[in-house]
Amino acid sequence: MTKEASDTHAQCRPDMCALDTLDNDKYITRHINECSDAGESNHVLLDPPEMALLLDIVAERQLNETSGMGNPHRNSLPACQILRLQRLVNDLYSTDEQPVPFWVDTICVPLQSPYRKLAISSMATVYKDAEKVLVIDSAILSVPSTMVHSIEMAVRLRTSSWVRRLWTFQEAYLAKELHYQFQDTAYTLSRIKQKYHQEQRALAQLGEESERTSGSYGGEDTVLQPTSYTAPDARAWKRVEGGDLLWHDAYRFLEQVEVLGKNKPQGESARLRSIIHPLRWRTTSRLEDETICLSGCMDSSLDRLPWSSGAQERMKMFLLSMRTIPVGLMFVDRPRIEMEGCRWMPTSLLAGGMDSTLPDSWDPEGSASIGRPTASGLLVTLPGIMLSNVTKYTQAFRYGHVHDIIFISVDGVPYYVYGLLSKPVQWEITGTDQLALVLREPLHQKGTFACLITILADRGGIMYGRFQSCVMVMGNPGIHRNLDEVTFTMATTTSTAQEWCVG
């Protein structure tokens, strides 16, 4: 498998996977294997003025690649690559439509300003207007579809670089029609599913034949049940389709983005929430591009983004420009923007894995599911607990992390409060601070997500506070300490409709 990205996880950080991060200095633009002229002279090169014209002409079809067909140094590709791309694109159309114009970022996104900014600003339009998107990835390009099972096809896609990159999410999310290029032909996801069903029917029929001739079929305990697939036996078919966990996981993962793109939720908060989940597994070599991609998926104008600023300033302006935010964003255990009024904001939505999972709302249709960003912080309506005379302890948890911990009693029921476990947490608390817990949902023994904040002011019934940490409030604190030996922090619950401004 050709791979210009890092070959190992050696460069990864606790909050960011670098496996697919491209190193421009080491990147190699490749010729196809059959090419007899692999020199630099045999390249197709376009200059910026030609590029601006090309963008207008060929935005009809879009092609993505992660197989040595990039070029971070100039807008050129080997002629052999261009000819192969033309052939692959032509194969998606009838002969009377050929040659088919196509768009590929290596050629169509200039490296120089101001053309580059213009092209990047148009990326979402290119993806949305494309008739088809052809995905070329080394994980599948060398695989003949006739020689492998549909499960391998889906798993190769599921584990490819294409599903881990930021920009490929946008193209999949906005595409009208996705095609995945294997060695011999291109497949849509629905066609791969159809192939899977055909193969499962063949296996089941083979099992039936084996049972009739030798009695060796496994019976009721086997994954593939003997059944006639011309009959409407829904339960038997369900057992066959769901019997292979590898297929189920890979297919659902791939299907998720396509379904999201074709059924985009209405409203900013719901749209952003739907996007955050798949972004947890993706990375980019340029973190500044994250908000550009997000804006394209949100149908938002890029004019509000400060192009000359870094990634955190862009994320700040992106979130502040929204009218509503999914309130769960405040409770994900991710690094925060360390600016006044902005500490509720994660620095990035990428590569967080399970730490970026948004907690489900206990009030999905009500005010508890959304927040409103302001210059002072995120305005939310949620239950909470006021804390005073705070006494904190330290406690070793899993992975050897030592966290601050607080013991509280609510209506006579003991709880303990600790920072989420992805990293050690120590809180900045002085004897005069008044603290509060902003709860994601009403308190319960099995665990409640919360934000620990330092209260700054009470203005018109709205509690203004400085974000400190994402925490968990759990019952059964006796598992950590003898409760007779700890000092409980005073805790008073607020209304479930308490307004907070968390900054």
Structural notes for this entry:
Helix content is 29%, strand content 19%. The chain has 14 helices and 19 strands. The chain has helices at 48-58, 79-90, 105-108, 115-121, 123-129, 138-141, 150-158, 166-174, 189-214, 234-241, 245-262, 268-279, 290-297, 311-320; strands at 43-45, 62-65, 76-78, 103-104, 133-136, 178-181, 186-187, 325-326, 370-373, 378-381, 384-388, 392-396, 402-410, 413-419, 435-439, 448-459, 462-475, 490-493, 499-502. Strands 8, 9, 10, 11, 12, 13, 14, 15, 16, 17, 18 and 19 form a twelve-stranded mixed beta sheet that branches. It has a five-stranded mixed beta sheet with strand order 4-2-5-6-7.
What key phrases describe this protein's structure?
503 residues; alpha+beta; 5-stranded mixed β-sheet; globular; disordered N terminus
Please state roughly what percent of the residues sit in beta strands, choosing from under 5%, 5-15%, 15-25%, 25-35%, 35-45% or over 45%.
15-25%
| Uncertain residue ranges | 1-6, 48-61, 216-242
| Mean residue pLDDT | 79
Number of strands: 19
Structural class: alpha+beta
Alpha-carbon distance between the termini?
A: 47 Å
Task: Assign a percent range to the helix content.
Answer: 25-40%
| Coarse morphology | globular
Alpha carbon gyration radius = 27 Å
Largest sheet: 12 strands, mixed
Total helix count?
14
